[in-house]
Amino acid sequence: MSLSLNTLTKKGKKSKPRRGRGNASGAGTYSGRGIKGQKARSGSSGLKEMALRRVVQRIPKKRGFKPVRTKPEGVTLATIQKNFEENAIITPKVLRKAGFIKTSQVRIVNTGILKKKFSFKSCNVTAGARAAIEAAGGSIA
């Protein structure tokens, strides 16, 4: 057999049979779906997920509620007194770089005694911590 235009055949993906197009199509009446039942109805494709049911049930679920807004992390005055030089400018970026916080929000808490003078910028400060910082000669911006 020689190769010519009239002998060329199209080879490609075989199309799946179209179901439910009448008896003349060869897949009529019940269209290969059996008689009645959930799987015989149209739109029953959601049953594919039934195989995943056991898998989903075995996955440990994380319980509880996780808020979208993150709370500021607390840093004590004792930590700042111990780890920073006098007259240092304390910002969330500095505290994050030093490894005291993980997020960009910080709250300075009045725990410990502050003897050095510090400048705080972009930090939330409790009332007790504010009084201790100002008593040591520091400033809060």
Short summary:
With 141 residues, the protein is an alpha/beta fold. It has helices at residues 53-58, 77-83, 92-98, 127-135, and strands at 73-76, 89-90, 106-109, 119-120, 124-125, 139-140.
Topology at a glance:
Elements: H1 53-58, E1 73-76, H2 77-83, E2 89-90, H3 92-98, E3 106-109, E4 119-120, E5 124-125, H4 127-135, E6 139-140
Parallel strand pairs: 1-3, 2-4, 3-5, 4-6
Number of strands: 6
Reported for the largest beta sheet, the result is: 3 strands, parallel
CATH topology of the domain at 73-140: Ribosomal Protein L15, Chain: K, domain 2
* Total of DSSP H or I helical runs spanning 4+ residues: 4
SSE order: HEHEHEEEHE
Report the mean per-residue pLDDT as an integer. Answer: 87
How would you describe this structure to a colleague?
It contains four helices and six strands. 11% of the residues are buried. Helices cover 21% and strands 11% of the residues. The chain is elongated and about 100 Å long. Strands 1-3-5 form a three-stranded parallel sheet. It is of the alpha/beta class and 141 residues long. The model has no long low-confidence stretch (mean pLDDT 87). It has a domain at 73-140: Ribosomal Protein L15, Chain: K, domain 2, CATH 3.100.10.10.
